[in-house]
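Blackboard transcription, Thursday session:
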Amino acid sequence: MIGEPLVRREDLRLLRGLGQYVDDIDLPGVAHLAVVRSPHPHARILAIRTEEANRMPGVLGVYTAADIEPINGRWPVHLPHKGLRAAVERILPTDKTRYVGEAVAFVVAESRYLAEDACAQVEVEYEPLPGAGTWQIALNLGEAIHEGNPDNVAAHVTQTTGDVEAALRSAPHVLHETYRIRRGGGHSMEGRATAARYDASLDTYVVWDATQTPHGARRFLATCYGIPEERFRVIAPPDVGGGFGPKGQRYPEEMAVPWLSKQLGRPVKFIEDRYEHFLTSCMEHPQEHVVDVAFDDDGVLLGLKDVFVSDMGAYGTSLIVPTIAGCTVPGPYRIPNLHIEFTAVFTNKVPQSAVRGAGRPQGVYVMDRTIDRIADYLGLDPAEVRFRNLIQADQFPYPVGLTFRDGSPLTYDSGDFPELLQKGLDLIDYPAQRKLQAERRAAGAYRGIGISVGLEGVGLGPFEGATVRLETTGRATVVLGAPPQGQGFQTTYAQICAEFLGLDVDQIDVVTGDTSLIPYGTGTFASRVMANAGPALATAASEVKTKLLESAASLLEAAPEDLEVSEGQVRVRGMQQGVSLAEVAQASNVGRPGMSMAKDMVPGLTASAYFNPERAGYSSSVQVCVVEVDPETGEVEIVDWAVGHDCGRIVNPLLVEGQVLGGIAHGLSNALYEEALYADDGTPLTVSYLDYPIPSAREMPWIKLYNQETPSPLNPLGVKGAGEAGTLGVPAVIAAAVEDALRPFGIQIRDCPLSPGFIGDLVDEARTRAAADDDRGPDDQGS
Amino acid sequence: MNPVVVVTLEVNGTRQQVEIEPRTLLADVLREKFSAKGTHLGCEHGVCGACTVLLDGEPVRSCLTLAAQAAGHRVETVESLAEPDGSLNELQGAFQKHHGLQCGFCTPGILMSLTALFRTTQHPSEDQIREFIQGHICRCTGYQQMIEAALDVSEHAGSAR
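(Written on the board underneath:)
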């Protein structure tokens, strides 16, 4: 079962329009939440007048911070860090707003139309304050975005191994570079969504939440409301329309909806629209990396120092993104001396969260661009410089000398980077591509080839759990804490259960993301679920199988070790007749009330298991991309593209391929298209798909995929993670290919994304430079 | 209360009279009054294509169409695609076979656009398919597997499978 490209069972409902996303769940009497949002990036709230709005047709209630006071305490810090000067964040701010779109008041009405009508009638009096749209402005704003933090620095963190300064002093060659990398938003096609119904008979809030982390939502709700977690049943529905990171965060509407439901005595829901997604769903903000790299005459790395700044947005209650970015920089290379240092800065923009890749694309970009720079400097082929520095297949476990975002030593578990790179070069026929490039150049085309090798920390802890039950029908149920957002958990986890329980996949149901069905869970992010929930499920399913065989042995008066599970039966190996799974389950799970069980029968064919990995594993990926650039329009045409990945043992190759391809598209969007622009004061400028393009089927080229499987030693299944592998190297490989294409202009690329306008500007500047050089003539050079 | 209008819509062969505010979007009426919740709203400004339905056979954005504008026209949604016994039709089956969808939120709109394409062009090329669905955003798949699905249908169209 494991390793088979099974088609997905969830497709049967999704393809017929029968999926049940939060907005589709039938909640009779549901009321609709709309939000009054700040039009200012930074402003003191002086007064809020709600009387007019309250009188509007269909309005059920208007709520300001004062009205929700019982649940409006300070939010817990998402991931505390000793270096983090955490911001005070609440459902509704009580003092001032810190980004455009920040919730200021809630309106609940009979329809979303009427709720939005009423929002327009809520009068908020603001005193605008200076705002910061960039970290540079924030550092000199002269206005504290958060009380008691006048310089707007959220954190300053340094990690080192070896002695970089000595390496930089003594190395034969040192290069100094600055890279500016932007990413963007999650843009799941379904926006954020939360519905809730307070059940008075149980004194329980039932919450349907399009979240990646239902257990985290429950914990957070309990903290805000000051009541035990058990009073909440949070369900991340099986159908969530994409997540990509931002849906792993906590949001004001999500926290308020259950409480509003109790106040109004009827279900309430909030469905984010796209405009709100642009304004208020977390995204990854710009980073600027300043790199000093030391290397010898052969291009062998001796040391690297990366000092960078990470824009945190207005709140940002963790250092996940910059920490991962910094830890991703060393990548697959041997670097004896490292210094990674970052400053995180508050700005007046939507808070930062991880977006598919979570800082890794920035880290890969920094390292790949630096390797390319070394290759240029020494006149070596970029592939050759990579081969000279790659960690070898016999060097695992490989300690990097840093501490990863999971708090454990950054130690690579397994891989074969040289082979993965060589396979990619072979697949695309690298020598032939170089020849073709020369021919195309001679014909006047600007063709370039880029290479990227990236590593991705995956399978992060702390744990994930699974429960397996053999039901009295003879079917099995798998319960997972982590919810899917399109990854196909109902299929892949049925495969794993089938493998260890011995049932057919079709006899297994998979239930996910319901806090009432499994007490603890961490959630779906960081390409972590397979490496956590997979081994947990394998253990639980094996345990149920042992119980099943013991009970069946009792019924059949045989020894458990002589039995097998086959065709819905347990039977003595080699015999035709056995006892059905339903019969065994009936005997074990129900028995006969009041009667003693037969000898050796096991009561209850169920088991729960949790798996906590010792540390993160590392998936690897290689990208080789050929582009042609039109210097007149700045358009990048992708000619050929090979992507290889190693996510350890593969459970379902069809679905892993989908994960990688989707990741690549997200990466290409980051590399060439998406750009969240803000005015200097923090006013967002790109708030619709008309000025924030995401590639369609026409922009995506055909990708040649290949894979490698080096099992992870960190879990018994040998699995890693595949969710972000495709994304990591794309900005780097596209930048490399575009730079190579524009080599005749002598253009160097240090930025991301590469919009047509940006490329056009680079070409113009290069032409102006060349013209000036011509004017000066050879005699003036060096003067 | 705001003024209301009464319009008669034909959705997937069923005619029904609905009482709505004039500003009501077709998408909202399909979802709320016809329980056709397979039509999803992804951007509400006509770019992402998730809400695409067929109006007299032509793909339209139901987020940019007022329900009142659809009066007297034939509306087809994703709920109309499956075979009478509920099994997947050829296009839907190809999407499943090739893993042409992940979260599934954008999929109904894409299926409707491709349905319109296949009605007029039995064997569309890869370029034609890409061109025809360029008005859809899918954040999950990178499109490659859905193109494979559509090409599979294109290759086998008109032949018994």
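Lecturer's comment: Chain B has two domains: 5-80, 90-156.
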